[in-house]
Amino acid sequence: MEEEWSYRLDIIDGPTRCGQLEKGDARVHLPFLLDLSRGEVLHPSPGNAKVELRFTRNGDGENDLSGKVKQRLDRIDAGGLSPGVGAMENELFLEVDGSRGRIPLISERLSSMLLDDPRELSRIIMSLREKAPAHPPIFIPGAGGSPDMEVLLYLGVEVFDTSRALLDAASGTYYLQNGELNTRELERIGGPSVLCSCSICRTGAEMDPGRLSEHNIGMLRRRLSLAYLKLKEGRLREHVMGLLSGHPEWVSAVRFVEGGTAWDVLPWSRSFRKVGKAAVTYRDDLSNPDFRLFRHRVRTNFTPLEHRKLLLLLPCSARKPYSLSRTHRTIASGLHRLKSWKSVCQRLVVTSPLGAVPMELETSYPAAHYDIPVTGDWFHDEVTMTRDIVSAVLSRGDFDTVVCFHGEGDRFFPEEGESGSMMGSSFINVHIEAERKGAKPLDELRHILEREMNGKETVPPRDNDILEKLKLIEFSLGIRLENREKLKIKRAPSGDLLLGNGRKLADLKIGGPVPTLELANMVWNDGEQGRRVIIEDFIPRGTIFNQGIISVSGDIVPGDVVLVGTEDAPKAVGRALVPGSLMRTDLRGGAVRVIAHVR
Ligand SMILES: [Zn+2]
């Protein structure tokens, strides 16, 4: 038996997984498209444009491509089709520069009937992921039409083939960048040269099935290139959602997967992105795994400062971080006479799609990056998620009073406004109070805070600022740093810095804090755990691989900042590329990218 290609993981992003196949020096990047008419691997990445592909037949040499794909392919003039397509069912042989290797493909016997039931298909994909989170690539013979290719890439499929494009060509379907036309529509619009400048369409000659297949396969390849680019940029989900208009069956599959009932997507979701903007365009974007992860972490990991007795609910703003917005600056200037109001109030910004954001976390991803159309209308699920998170924060703190300073507060908390109580704390809706008295809401807020703050423990603004930064660090790194002396916040153009005894401990930039080795050292000596990766004794540079990792602590998702070191001493600070649970497997591929290391 021949040695197999091994799988190396490159990208984990929610349900998406993408890697490469390695054998010796030969590498084949995924995703790729199997061109059945030419026997080539079409790849979106430059430098990997052409790999000689050999299909081999199964055992007795029978073509046994299952189900309807096979039947329908038989009906086409098979002219250019490789006689070996049937062997794709279970495995595939790739030959690169004379090196031949078997790709151990996981492929269910999925006929085109299953492709008509995307929800069931996604259930099968998720069960494969469940069984083997870091297994060989998923290949679904017959997948790769419009728009299944992009959405299946999002759902974790890495190998596609051109059989659907060939079948569609045979039935006169012309592929577009988004969607498709039939040949009659194509004529009405003035022919293919109007829509496409590929070598086939440019000539303007009439489309026969052969020319249509050429165009369709070319288009499929361009679409895969675009989707791959979006994947690398961290924007595949956004791209896919843009393509799903008119395809409720695929939206249902995405909802099913993101909903988390079949498979828990959260450990695979990202807590940080280089390209930071997170757009919320559709209602389904509320379930974007990035948002779900943030909500989950606030709900389960955020603990308010103990001395805070008031929970102050504030409106959000289009500008991020919130504190730079006009709304929030107006509130701050209206309250500036109440010296230490920020230290008594746990500020919580009520917002969709994150539910509610503790002000300390306003610079973290995605709190500082999301962008949602503001209409003043709130969906039921937005109200529910806000109430959930406000309740969780309320239950974790020691609050006497909830003060709601949100113009639409009565939509979120109608009963609490009526009864004047929420989970045992008193509840005040400032706007309603102000309306009753004929006062301006901001004046009324000042009045209420003045009254409620009376006799409460306050902390000087500078100390409060430090306590809030430590909360941000606790949330982002899992490290508690209370009661440290000589800590200082330094304002810098790129973001604030946390200093200790004059030395830089953490960069508090937008996107989340990045600790220095100095801080890692402090934490190590104190036995603080946090998100920590223990490695064998080597100097970690560039990328740390699983082979060198001994143990992992804390819940780590891709994008998390982690501290790296031996049991005795810290060696580096880095960013996780994969979930913590995958770092202890024999998976090939990078586990942590080093940001800074000891010398
Ligand atoms: Zn074309």
Give a verbal description of the structure.
There is one protein chain. This protein is of the alpha+beta class and 599 residues long. Helix 4 (148-154) runs parallel beside helix 8, helix 8 (209-233) packs across helix 9 (236-243) and helix 17 packs across helix 18 (441-453). The chain has 20 helices and 29 strands. The strands form six sheets. Strands 1, 2, 3, 24, 25, 26, 27, 28 and 29 form a nine-stranded mixed beta sheet that branches. It folds into three domains: 6-257, Alpha-Beta Barrel (TIM Barrel), CATH 3.20.20; 278-453, Uracil-DNA glycosylase-like (Rossmann fold, 3-Layer(aba) Sandwich), CATH 3.40.50; 461-597, Roll (Archaeosine Trna-guanine Transglycosylase, Chain: A, domain 4). The protein is globular, with a radius of gyration of 28 Å. The protein binds zinc ion. Zinc ion is lined by residues 192, 196, 198, 200-201, 215, 218.
Which descriptors would you attach to this protein?
TIM Barrel; Rossmann fold; Archaeosine Trna-guanine Transglycosylase, Chain: A, domain 4; 3 domains; 9-stranded mixed beta sheet; 6-stranded mixed beta sheet; binds zinc ion
